[in-house]
Amino acid sequence: MTDTPREQELIVSKQILSIEQTFSTGPIMGHFLRELRDNQRIMALRCRANGRFLLPPREVDAWSLSDDLEWIEVGPEGTLCEFDVVYYASPDPLTGATRNVPYVIGWVILDGVEGLSPLWHLIHTTDIPALRHGLRVRAVFAETRTGAMEDIVHFEVLNTGETGP
Amino acid sequence: MSTSKRKHRNVGIIGCGMSVFSSHREEVNQPEMIHEAVAEALADAGITLADVDCVVHGNMELFEMVHQPDMWHSLGSGVVGKSGLRLTTGGTTGMTLACAADNLVASGLHDVVLAIGFEKLQEGHTTGGISNMADPLWGRKLQAGALTGTTAQAMIDEFGKERACDAAMKLRIIMDEHAALNDKAHRSFGLERRYIKELTENSPPLVGELRMIHMCSQSDGACAVIFAAPHKIKEWNANPAWVVDHETVHREENVVFTGTKSTHRVASERLFARNGITNPREQLDVFEMYDPSAWWGLDWLREFLLLEGDEHLKMVENDEIGIQGTFPVNPSGGVMASNPIGATALVRVAEAALQVRGTAGRHQVPKEVKRALASGFGGTLWSVLMLLARDEPQGASQ
User: Fold this and answer.
1) N or C: where does chain A have the smaller number of CB atoms within 10 Å of the terminal CB?
2) Cβ contact (<8 Å) for A116 and B258?
């Protein structure tokens, strides 16, 4: 024993929370996901009251408050209207795994959509510096599909040289 | 939308308290950290817990994953035996707390309300928590926390890379200079203006041109603010910052590009129209903005102040937003200096109130503060504004 006062030890409680969750998709998103899985089709809802496209589809248009909606098939090709090149290796909250970087997320206006209603998804490219607004892209579907957004693996950049509007 | 709002009676902020903000407050648990802020707010107001009628308490539970923090914290918050509410709205939580406290006193339901916001980000995973806010049916795979480079890219497209990057870094340096004046701030690096280009180039990119140095901190901390009715303010001879008005603007959650005005601009337009503010840069004396990154802080100046063109860049380039400037922004150092998320927006209100009351200490702006604006921001682009004033507002029904 010595007389030197000891610094107090800080005791912390270390805990890891792992939660299995199951979310209901509902009839609207459920239809969208079923079309992805069974028919490799991307379905948007169009509001008859104001012509706005809802993608991903939603039960009611928030602007018109109307549920007078019609299903319209869109894509699978489209135009890249915005993108983010992500260098920060954040965790994938669905798996806990650290994401491989860099990767690209983008907002795609699918062919057939009128107005600014982009679909948000991963963009696959081997040439990140060449990315620009207006590039043409196409949805690549997974071979094994489960009825989830991941049934689209990513959008691939089409090497057409052409850019959309 | 709500073009007219009338209070039943006026409400004044009479006490503000903050814990020390830091990346790790491992020496205290959550109730103890909250008690630091509560004790300071009570002392600032010159009252005791016996004078408080109701406690509104909030944070973002996804970070610490504690189901009923208001119950765990009751000894630190002082809510035992009192009326209590718990609120959580993500990043805007602190501002929602302030709006709720204002409403509770203005309505006549309670005379004295204590608002408490806290977060101990070190006890959870910030980016993981934010990613889990995304729509579970389609968004979680893609959400990278609160990080996006689209604003940086849009500003680069609009103003050119050199001017946009320099303006963003200039704003970042000014915030760092302000943080050096704030004893409670989590971090101040001593960034030097002469290295403006190197600071950008040498910082690792997070998303596009959003770099590590542009981004807000992850902090532990708590904030407490006391709202009181006019007769109590008179009885206690308190020093109030009057709550003139507040405005909350929501957005359809999962739509990124709406082709419409930003929630910030809409919030300002509504708040200013109701309160006779036609020239915010002249009529407001200080602005505490919830600025999660230097790029957003820069871009949002234009939105909140209803500016056009490159006016917001000039405000930064000409040092107008510095503490000595004509329109000081975040003399506290703002969110890039300290960001305990559930407390962060309440800290904006507290800092604006300190400026109006003339009690901000070393970061008090060197001019008379008659009106101060505070903003809150949430992950799905919610915007909340609160307007404070030195003079008691007219027009309440009582």
Assistant:
1) N
2) yes
Q: What is the ipTM of this complex?
A: 0.84
Which contacts of A44-53 are long-range, i.e. CB under 8 A and separated by 24 or more positions? A44/A71, A44/A72, A44/A73, A44/A74, A44/A110, A44/A112, A44/A113, A44/A117, A45/A69, A45/A70, A45/A71, A45/A72, A46/A70, A46/A71, A46/A72, A46/A114, A51/A114, A51/A115, A52/A115, A52/A117, A53/A113, A53/A114, A53/A115, A53/A117
Classified as helix, coil or strand, B224 is strand
Beta bridge partners of A86: A103, B207
CB atoms within 10 A of CB B278: 9
What's at A12, amino acid-wise? V
Q: Which DSSP symbol is given to B386?
A: E
* Distance, CA of A137 to CA of A159 (rounded, Å): 9
Q: Which two tokens stand for residue B217?
A: 């901190």
pLDDT-based confidence at residue B2 (cuts at 50, 70, 90):
very low
Percent over 70 (pLDDT), chain B = 96
Supply the pLDDT for residue A2. 56
**With 0-12 CB in 10 A as exposed, 13-18 as middle and 19+ as buried, what is A21?**
exposed
Which among B93, B119, B92 has a CA at the least distance from the CA of B19?
B119
Contact check, Cβ <8 Å, B137/A149: yes
SS3 B45: helix
Chain centroid to Cα A113, Å, comes to 17
Extended beta strands in B179-315, E state: 205-207, 210-211, 220-228, 241-249, 286-288
Asked if B143 and B133 touch (Cβ cutoff 8 Å), the reply is: yes
Cross-chain residue pair A88–B139, CB shorter than 8 Å: no
Pairwise CA distance, residues B290 & B172, whole Å? 13
Closest to B128 (Cβ–Cβ): which among A58, A93, A115?
A93
- Measure CB to CB from residue B149 to each of A85, A93, A118 and give the nearest one: A85
Interchain CB contact of A121 with B (< 8 Å): yes
Other Cβ atoms within 10 Å of A13 Cβ, number: 6
Enumerate the residues of chain A whose CB falls inside 8 A of the CB of residue B257.
81-82, 107, 116-118
Q: Is B343 left (phi over 0), alpha (psi -120 to 50) or beta?
A: alpha
Q: Do B141 and A92 touch (CB under 8 A)?
A: yes
Q: State mean pLDDT over B121-150.
A: 79
Q: Is B299 left (phi over 0), alpha (psi -120 to 50) or beta?
A: alpha
Chain B residue with the nearest C-alpha to that of A13: B123
What is the Cα–Cα distance from B394 to B392, expressed in whole angstroms? 7
Tell me the pLDDT tens digit for each residue of A68-119. 999 999 999 999 998 999 998 877 777 778 888 899 999 999 999 998 889 9
User: How far does B195 lie from chain A, in Å, by closest CA?
Assistant: 24
Beta-ladder partners of A113? none
Tokens describing residue B309: 């063109």
Return the closest-CA partner of residue B327 out of B296, B304, B353.
Answer: B304
* Closest C-alpha to B296, from B371, B218, B204, B383: B383
Sort out which chain A residues have CB atoms less than 8 A from B135's CB and list them: 56
Say what angle helices B161-179 and B294-304 make with each other, to 10 degrees: 100
